[in-house]
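=== RUN LOG ===
request id: a7f3
mode: sequence -> structure
chains: 1
length: 190
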Amino acid sequence: MSPESFAQTLAATVTRYLAQVAAPAEHLSLLRWQIAEGHRLDLRETMPGHLTTSAIVLSPDHAQILVIDHITIGRWLQPGGHYEPSPFFHLSAQREAEEETGVTGLKLHPWHQNGDLPFIIDSHDVPGKKSRNEPPHIHHDLQYLFLADPSQPLTAQLDEVNAAKWREVAMLEDFAPKTAARLKMAPAPV
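=== RESULT ===
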């Protein structure tokens, strides 16, 4: 995507998310303001926030979730990272999951109906990174659901994560409670 098509696609995606998916209390005010101001949300240098994508990778029965032990943040999270140019936002999330965990055979969850509408858009504070001279800032995270076989071997990308593991899906409550709540309404595919 060019910067212009990125901005148009992101604006349309956020508008559609707010109309079709968002809970009544979700307003995404900062993200919408940054879009209206023309901020380059595809660049990690953009402050006060920029775009990230992440993958909620589930076992087919929704009993397990793939998580990473994130080096910078120091806790278990879903795989994800700063947006990298892709034809679709979910492909950026998929690439992050594959790179960070070595997971193979990812399939976009049927909830997405083969589209690019995020399951969750979560704007949250992150601590920044001293080695990059980054101050604390906001990640506007587009989260996508994927399915994968938990019996496949994993290989953590050790420059970004300490480990990658399959854990019980209840762990999602610890770091993504909005996602966990919405997931309870998205039944496992048959």
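=== NOTES ===
The beta strands are 49-58, 64-70, 75-77, 80-82, 107-108, 120-126, 137-147, 161-168.
The chain has one domain: 3-183.
=== END ===
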